[in-house]
Design brief:
Belongs to the bacterial solute-binding protein 2 family. This protein is of the alpha/beta class. The chain folds into 2 domains: about 190 residues, Response regulator (Rossmann fold), CATH 3.40.50.2300; about 150 residues, Rossmann fold (3-Layer(aba) Sandwich). About 40% of the residues lie in helices and about 15% in strands.
Length: about 375
């Protein structure tokens, strides 16, 4: 949502809505992002539940003030950046690339995007092509740099700064592989708030299915953190963990969802997935089982927040919430990190806070675009 629509008044409205969302409704009713009550008011983990409710309220609130960097070097002129994309079919990778391109117009740089087509060979070829262009900097857009170890080494030897987007587990500078900075939210925060949402939404009593891709270390770690956080509430039951590789979601998820419905029936009240894409592919099976789009199982995506996820949430079609990445803001941050590298300054160290989007606080938007960063970066860059 454009920053000018994000106001303090909107934040106050969200607080009021969150309070309503978390106070409960009767079993069998739903308002998409609304509450689920498994029966008489009872709490299996009162302390954990209270903390989860407070965390969810904070994560749903939209603040009008920018909390990122407000000082830094003026724009270095005439730089050329190449964005090597894991695949532009990935909405997150494409969203961050769009943010980089938008910021480049403001700072006065040239950006070229090279699509790795989602295969190891394609990504390696794209990275090699990027190096031959002798750019000022290269973005590692959404893939593991160890996949392109030779290309990373060549870029390092040529003194081409590398900035990652979701390239390694942790945000900030990386020594191995050598990255000037990695722009991402903290996986621990994303996992924790996803679990908190389930705990708060269910009043501490839920039957949960976790969807993950164990072939990706980052995704496997995220799902392990989610399970650990869910286990802090004694009223939460982990019914199953479904390991479905992301490339196979469209072919495997519908069948697995049908099987889960047969096994658990009404005991399956909530789901959490390491990426929103699982719920796009779960929807046909849930619809075929005559499940209501705004009813159980209530689904939350622990990361990404692509436009299709927002559309499902806004229309209450088999997804109740997501923990979205601020793609455009991260694209602007990527260019700011490069500008710091070119100026001999350290990385900014900024990490965007986690946010939860539901139908109650999305405002009809199709992406999470926090306020204030464009004006802040323009001021830093002197633009």
């Amino acid at each position: 949502m454009p920053s000018h629509r994000r106001t303090a008044r909107a934040g106050a409205v969200v607080l009021a809505v969150v309070a309503t969302v978390l106070t409960g409704c009767e079993r069998g009713t739903s308002t998409g992002g609304g509450s689920y009550s498994p029966g008489p008011a009872r709490t299996g983990c009162p302390t954990v539940l209270a903390g989860a409710r407070a965390a969810v309220q904070r994560a749903m609130t939209t603040h009008s003030a920018w909390d990122g960097p407000t000082t830094g070097p003026r724009a270095v002129p005439g730089k050329r950046i190449v964005y090597v994309a894991q695949t532009m079919n990935n909405p997150g990778v494409a969203g961050a690339a769009k943010g980089v391109q938008e910021a480049a117009k403001t700072i006065g740089w040239n950006v070229r995007v090279i699509d790795g087509q989602g295969t190891p060979a394609g990504i390696q070829a794209a990275f090699s092509q990027a190096i031959t262009l002798r750019p000022s900097g290269i973005v590692i857009g959404g893939f593991d740099p160890h996949l392109t170890a030779q290309q990373v080494a060549k870029a390092n030897a040529a003194h081409i700064p590398l900035v990652g987007w979701h390239a390694v587990d942790a945000p900030g500078p990386s020594k191995d592989p050598k990255l000037f900075s990695n722009v991402t939210t903290r996986v621990q925060d994303v996992a924790r708030i996803s679990a908190d949402w389930i705990i708060a939404h269910s009043h501490g009593h839920a039957g949960v299915v976790v969807f993950t891709d164990a072939s990706i270390p980052f995704a496997r770690n995220k799902s392990e953190l989610i399970k650990k956080a869910l286990a802090t509430c004694s009223g939460i039951r982990l019914l199953a963990e479904e390991n479905i590789p992301i490339p196979d979601t469209s072919s495997r998820t519908p069948q697995e969802v049908s099987s889960l419905l047969s096994r658990f029936r009404d005991r399956w009240t909530h789901s959490v997935a390491i990426n929103d894409v699982y719920f796009a592919d779960a929807a046909p099976a849930l619809r075929a089982a005559r499940k209501k789009g705004g009813g159980a199982p209530f689904n939350i995506g622990a990361g990404d927040g692509d436009p299709s996820a927002f559309q499902r949430i806004n229309s209450r079609e088999f997804q109740a919430a997501t923990v979205p990445e601020p793609f455009a803001q991260q694209g602007w941050q990527i260019l700011d990190e490069f500008n710091r590298a070119f100026s001999g300054r350290p990385a900014s160290g900024y990490v965007a806070p986690v946010h939860i989007t539901t139908a109650a606080d999305s405002g009809g938007a199709t992406t999470w675009d926090p306020p204030g960063y464009r004006a802040a970066y323009r001021k830093i860059w002197g633009r």
